[in-house]
Amino acid sequence: MKLAAIDIGSNAVRCQISSALKHEEQVIFKRIEYIRYAIRFGEDVFNSGYISDLKIQKFVKLLHAFQLLLDVHDVDHFMVCATSAMRNSQNAPQILQLVQDTLGMGIQVIDGAAEADLINKVIVNFLDERNYLHIDVGGGSTEFNIYVNREKVASRSFEQGSIRHMHGRDSEELWNNMRLWIEENSRKYHLSRAIGTGGNINKIHDLAGKAPGKPIFRKQIEEVVALVSSMTMEERLTKLLLNPDRADVILPAAEIYLSAMKWAKLETMMVPNVGLKDGMIHALYEQFHPERFVISGIS
For the whole model, what pTM was predicted? Predict the structure, then answer.
C-alpha cells in the first residue's frame, strides 16, 4: 500500500509518499518520495493577515504538481493538512475553495491539538521508560507534549514559531506563558529528557555531527548556535550549505528549543527526524486498517 501526506506549514509545504509494509502483525513505513518547497505563507499572514495572490498562484501549481506525482506513484490514499499560517489567514476560506474547485482536493485546516495528536503517533515509537518533554517548533506554532511511560499526559500548543519569532510577532506574555507551563509540568512529572522535532532541530543535529539516533546535548546545540551566529547569511549558504529558507530561521527556532530545555532543566534531546507528515501517514494507515497493529520501524 502507498500512502501520501501533504503538510502545508507556515514555512514550507511538504509532500511525502511512503509504502506500508506489513509482515506478521508488524508494519514498516518506507519513504519512497519526499519534496519540500519553501512557500513561506507565514511571512504574509503574520505581517498582513492575508496570503498574497502571487503565493496563492504558486500554491495551486504546487498542489497540482503533487497531485500528478501521487498519480504516477499509484498512491492508494492521501491526506492534506494545513497548520498555523492557514489557520490565521483571513483569506483561507477562499484559498481552500479555489483548491477544491481547481483540483478537487480537500484541505484539512487542523488546530494545534490535532497537530500534536498526529505527531504523537510517530513519537511514541522512539520513547523509553523515561519522562520526556516533546518540543515541536514550526514556522507559526510550537507544540509541547509530556510523556510518562510512553503515554502522553499533558499537551499545549502556543502560537509561537520560527517565522513569528523572526518577525517579532510574539510577545513577552507569550514567552512567560510558555515558561510557566513548562516549569509547572517539569516539576509535576519529573522530566528527564527532551525529544525534538522540526526541520531546524534536524539541521542542528546534523551540524553538530551527531549520528542518527544519538542524543544531542544542550551545550552542543548552543555551540551550533554560536557557530551560525558568527556567520553572515552568505557564509551560512556557502560554508554550511544551508538553504536560504533555513539560514534565517534556524536561530529563532533554536532559541525556542533551548529556552524550553532550560526551563525544564534538561541537558539532552533525542532528535528522531520525524514530524507531522509521518504522523499523517500513520493516521491514514489506521483509518484503512483499524485492526490492532505494531509499528516496528520507520525508514
Answer: 0.89
